[in-house]
Design a protein that fits this description.
The chain is about 40% helix and about 20% strand. By secondary structure, it is an alpha/beta fold. The two termini are about 55 Å apart. About 45% of the residues are buried.
Length: about 525
């Protein structure tokens, strides 16, 4: 089994994504997660470019990585400099890492117009820089920037830049598809030439996703002999992103038989993906292959019926192989198989009760006609199912609520909510303030329930989304509110729909609380 080395550049290339700015603490946390997962190289940034990256390396060296080698990034020496006097290369040395990754120009267009130097001087810049870092005892990975465009422009010169790095002692020469415009067939053809011209060179691949081919291009490169793959978690990166390691790793290891990480670690891939999104303050891409929330989601009734019999019918791998899980969706398109499968998740067995399934489907169709959507609101669907089957007892009954918003003399917005509930036969009347009307309503509801159900204090609101359903109705439009809540053990979604955003929010918030309380009740099985 051939081993492929993984080079993660989430902390540098990934941080160039629009809207992302990692703190030093963020970088350290991600680096530790990458190391625990089994990544071989973690590129921590460019110590010569900014103080934050310099501080990261200072702090990271205090950590004890079990699997990964920390990498400092930089460029070849500047024209006219000696390598020993070059500030960029000196910054790499000062970072005290054992591995350096430096990039140099491959495309003669860049040599002439970006560097504004001669092709001969550029070759010296590459060789001098690699030789200097090797003389300091570092492992050196040379990134041949814009290699594929350079090859197409001037094949002989592009190959000469690789030879300069190899002859100077580079441990790996990574072919960079910097502009992201290549297709797999072109990658394959060019790497075959490189392998023929430099048969002893250890090659790597670095691709971008501007044609949506970064993963495919990386896989083809490995099949053609590259033994190091550079990429980022979740494909983060400038423009359309870098090659997504969360897709490359399972493709290589589970489908093609290469060894990238220890077998026992690949089941942590989904967890790693979502952790990086959390630290980056990004909403996970639900449609992302392998690790996305909907990567193994099934909506069509015929699909659900088939996978209940044999999962291979509509799943290319077992979701658990990468730490993900199957998700059965319910909608107006659902069949009895979807409903029965979801009911099982709720500890309800209705397979032998066709009338129950039909009743639930009818309720779902009516609800979706009014704007509800249960695909990301399993908790609300759980409650709907139990109410339809007549096995649900409410934990509280709403008697009424009132929400006010005012702007005071100081120009501050103040929101206040009043809620009246019947809880276990006792009328409870509470008042609470909040940052906004929904926050005030949420705080008021929790305040009322906490005395009777202290477990409410464990839960928190994780996400709140509002979408206009019928925008053509202008200010009278109906809105859909989706709330994601969590406690230390679980995360769940609820939904509310109304022409009034506060009413829609109340529906979603009260469902979230009801579901939390329901979780403590013993499971109820219903059979005909």
């Amino acid at each position: 089994m051939k081993t492929i080395k993984l080079f993660d550049t989430t902390l540098r290339d990934g941080s160039q994504s629009a809207g992302i700015s990692f703190s030093v603490d963020d970088m350290l946390r991600i680096a530790q997660s990458l190391d625990a997962f089994g990544i071989h190289y973690i590129e921590g940034g460019w110590p010569g470019s900014n103080p934050k990256h310099e501080l990261f390396f200072k702090e990271a060296l205090k950590l004890k990585f079990k699997n990964a080698r920390l990498v400092a990034f930089g460029s070849t020496r500047y024209k006219g400099n000696t390598a020993a006097a070059d500030a960029n290369l000196q910054a790499i040395i000062r970072s005290k890492v054992k591995v350096a990754c430096i990039f140099g120009k491959t495309w003669d267009l860049h040599v002439l117009h970006a560097l504004r130097t001669t092709p001969e001087e550029n070759l010296k810049m590459i060789a001098d820089s690699v030789y200097f870092l090797k003389s300091k005892g570092l492992e050196v990975i040379y990134d041949a920037e814009h290699f594929f465009d350079g090859f197409k422009s001037n094949r002989d010169y592009a190959l000469a830049t690789l030879r300069a790095a190899v002859d100077a002692g580079a441990d790996n020469v990574t072919l960079c598809e910097t502009n992201g415009g290549m297709l797999p067939s072109g990658i394959q053809e060019i790497i075959r030439v490189v392998k023929k011209e430099l048969p002893a060179a250890a090659l790597g691949i670095h691709t971008h996703n501007d044609t949506e081919c970064a993963v495919a291009n990386s896989i083809v490169a490995v099949q053609e002999g590259c033994t190091l793959v550079q990429g980022t978690i979740n494909g983060l990166g400038e423009r359309c992103g870098n090659a997504n390691l969360c897709s490359i790793i399972p493709a290589l290891q589970l489908k093609l038989g290469y060894r990238c990480i220890p077998d026992k670690k690949i089941v942590q891939l989904t967890e790693l993906s979502r952790y990086v999104d959390e630290v980056a303050n990004l909403l996970p891409n639900e449609r992302q292959s392998y690790v996305g929330l909907n990567a193994f989601a099934h909506k069509a009734g015929i699909h659900v019926s088939a996978i209940e019999r044999n999962s291979l019918t509509y799943e290319h791998i077992a979701p658990t192989a990468v730490g993900n899980e199957r998700k059965i969706l319910v909608s107006e398109l659902s069949g009895k198989s979807n409903i029965a499968s979801k009911a099982k998740e709720f500890s309800l067995d209705i397979e032998n009760d066709p009338q129950a399934a039909a009743k639930i489907i009818d309720l779902v169709k009516k609800a979706e006609h009014n704007g509800y959507q249960f695909e990301n609101a399993d908790a609300s669907f759980n409650l709907l199912t139990r109410k339809a089957l007549g096995i649900y007892t409410p934990f509280f009954t709403l008697k009424g609520f009132h929400v006010s918003v005012e702007k005071n003399a100081a120009g501050e917005m103040v929101s206040e909510a009043t809620v009246k509930l019947d809880i276990k036969g006792t009328e409870v009347h509470t008042v609470a303030e909040g940052d906004g009307p929904v926050n005030a309503l949420d705080s008021c509801l929790r305040k009322a329930l906490a005395k009777f159900y202290p477990e409410i204090c464990e839960m928190s609101l994780r996400d709140f989304k509002v979408r206009v359903i019928n925008a053509g109705a202008s200010t009278a439009a109906r809105v859909r509110v989706l709330v994601e809540s969590c406690d230390p053990q679980d995360t769940w979604g609820t939904i509310g729909v109304s022409e009034n955003i506060i009413e829609a929010s109340w529906q979603a918030l009260s469902d979230a609380v009801e579901y939390k309380l329901l979780k403590k009740k013993p499971a109820i099985r219903r059979k005909k």
